Amino acid sequence: MSDLINMNGIEKRFPGVHALKDMRFELRAGEVHALMGENGAGKSTLMKILSGVYTRDSGSITLSGKPVEFSGPKEAQDAGVGIIHQELSLMNDLTAAQNIFIGREPRGRFGLLDEGKLNQQAADIFAKMQLVLDPTTPVRELSIAKQQMVEIAKALSYESRVLVMDEPTAALNDKEIGELFKIIEQLRADGVGVIYISHKMDEIKRISDRVTVLRDGEYVGTRESKETTIQEIIAMMVGRDLELEELHVPDVSQAAVALEVAGLNRGRAVRDVSFHVKKGEILGFAGLMGAGRTEVARVIFGADRLESGEIRVNGAPIDIRSPSDAAKAGIGYLSEDRKHFGLFLGMDVRSNIAMAAIDQFTGFGGVLDEAGMAAAAESYIKQIGIRTPSDRQEAQYLSGGNQQKIVIAKWLLRDCDVLIFDEPTRGVDVGAKSEIYKILNELAAKGKAIIVISSELPEILRVSHRIAVMCEGHLTGILGPQSTQEEIMQLATKTMQSPEPKSSGAAA
Amino acid sequence: MTTLNEHADQGAAAKVLGYLKREQHRFWAFSGLIVLLIGFSLASPNFFQTTNIISILQAASVNGVLAIAATLVIITGGIDLSVGTLMTFCAVIAGVLLTNLGLPIYIGIPGALIAGMLSGALSGFFIAKLKIPPFIATLGMMLVFKGLSLAISGARPIYFNDTPGFSEISTGSLIGMIFPSVPVPNGVLILFLVAIGASFILTRTVLGRFIFALGSNEEALRLSGINIDRWKMVVYALAGAICAVAGILLASRINSAQPAIGQGYELDAIAAVVIGGTSLTGGRGTMLGTIIGALIISVVANGLRILSVPQEWQIVVTGTIIILAVYADILRRQRA
Predict the structure, then answer these.
(1) ipTM higher than the 0.85 cut
(2) Which of A17, A332, A366 lies closest to B207 in CB terms?
(3) Domains delineated in chain A
(4) Residue B17 within any structural domain of the chain
(5) What confidence score (pLDDT) does residue B4 get?
(6) pTM, 2 dp
(7) With a CB-CB cutoff of 8 Å, which residues 324-343 of chain A face chain B?
(8) Is residue B7 assigned to a domain?
(9) pLDDT tens column, A331-344
(10) pLDDT tens-digit profile of B171-195?
(11) Is residue B15 domain-resident?
(12) How far does CA B50 lie from the centroid of its chain?
């Protein structure tokens, strides 16, 4: 089979960084080729070179055997190389069809826009994708999954033969992932070559034909997905074998209850939720996307208002109306969306770490004790291994894993008794993941009560001492540490008695 | 990692270069000011004279103080369109207290400052608690203050003839008493004192850290357990008090509170902030930049007047400088 894309000897340097060294990559028509590597391995740089965003320093790229030289994303797109970025780039107030044909709208008489034709052309693409979607729906009203479909439709409208997908499932639930995979299968059958970037190992095994692994800007190897193991891929990514730590469940039967909630309610997202966490315990929260786990955390933290229910910290009932009430009571929350809700990207590591505990460093007249803040920041940089040139480095220049550690340090400095981690390893590479698990265990060992919300079942099973499972706003059960993925999924899909009539998939 | 080794090799020189690179936005505006000073000095022998430099500084003082207030708000990611009319409102309050009620100066001036602070806090309340966008809230307050100034004063100027020493606040010269050769007026002295104070607040206090954090990521600050509503009100209240300082300076210089002026000053203030390199999207900015911005506006107006360029063309030049300054900032960001 001839290669659709062949990249060879690609070199790329940025000031001070040798980003790609003698990189190669090939893609066949009708193949899903996974591209893997830790953050900073060079995946994005390689894809940006392929799609014309960056120019390479040397090396060759051929498309269907012909050498190509893209001087910009538009040229690449016209040549049939489409890219779907992790952050969707749709205009929310325009309809699906208007988004797909933006800048290429079919014209009618007098050069006026022909909306009918526009919608028809979009509907044709949707039909080809076997996607049920009204082209006149404003993008704002679509789920993230459907928005992703619109992006794919947009790429297909350019007759793309190569489609790059950058972490397409990051914000999707299992059902939506299923829909996406059906469309990828369809594309594969039509002879489109798909380059699939993801951190989720199970997806790679499920959808891809081949896997190419990069590390530190270098090509490590390519494997047939069927013939390799997840262990092998991880070893290729990190350059060593990660030891799988055994889950050690401490005996907390004598420990005091740190956080207890009873009958929490907020709209449809949180319905009559009750549970407790003891000191030194890690309680995992499993469930499908939209099950209400994040909402429970936000209610406990006061980020959203509670409608009814009781929250007790160390036995005392507390009234939480805002995050500052929760923080005072000793509850810390690390949001799933670091960039938007956790970090001050333009501020330095020191200020980020000190932000939640700034009272400790505030002297007379509100004057800040910079030396004290620097010492605290330095100690956490060492303690939890934040890789940064100094504590004055701006947070935006650090990798996802190190940014996550900054947010962790922020709450450690505040010295909370209860820490809620919402998707602590999202967008974090494999190496940093196991470091974060280690931090969670150490915190529990120090007597903190920890809640970990995660959509990845292997992660839940790896860190949790007990596992709470949610479905449609209800807490459907709490499982012990040795549970199976099947047991969790059963509870995660167990609908409680619901007064509403069962609606079909359209509402999802 | 090759980058780490390279860093280690370069050492001190790299640190200096890195500092210059990080802080170059300050030098942009500063070099612009120097270029203007040299250009006007060459163009006219009357420009670089002590009296003229002092009059440039004097002219920059009111706008400079207002721009300091605007800088605090703009770094939080907000905007304050009411600084000009609030300044006038505070001047009128001072007039009412000192002239109409005949109160002593040590009550009149704190009274005006408190009026400014409370007015700013009210804007802050609308923005923080009622969630009205800053542009709208302060647009409304701009008109409220304008109307109140006219209503309270009966739309007539209030003179400070009965308050001896009031005009000394701005036009007297403490420095001149010590160094007779440089009679820098108190108004300029006050501008620099306010600037130093505001700069201290911005860089050394918890309020300053929260001002940057609000502009950088407001929601993250809320989720760090900080009561952001209260701090926002504090920022607007502080800005209001600084507007009152500007009001007193202006009233003192013209020895009267003129209720009809004030509108339009907010745009000059915002112009100074922007020329000084503070980002209108929040999170970044310096007081030094703002002062340089105010000086640039003042130098241009003064220099062009000396060269007998008509006033209408001075306005065109100022507008052009704003666009150039922001474009330079954009170029810098693209390269970074």
Answers:
(1) no
(2) A366
(3) 3-238 (3.40.50.300), 243-330+416-508 (3.40.50.300), 348-413 (no CATH)
(4) no
(5) 43
(6) 0.77
(7) 324, 326-328, 332-333, 335, 340-343
(8) no
(9) 999 988 888 889 99
(10) 888 988 898 888 899 999 999 999 9
(11) no
(12) 24
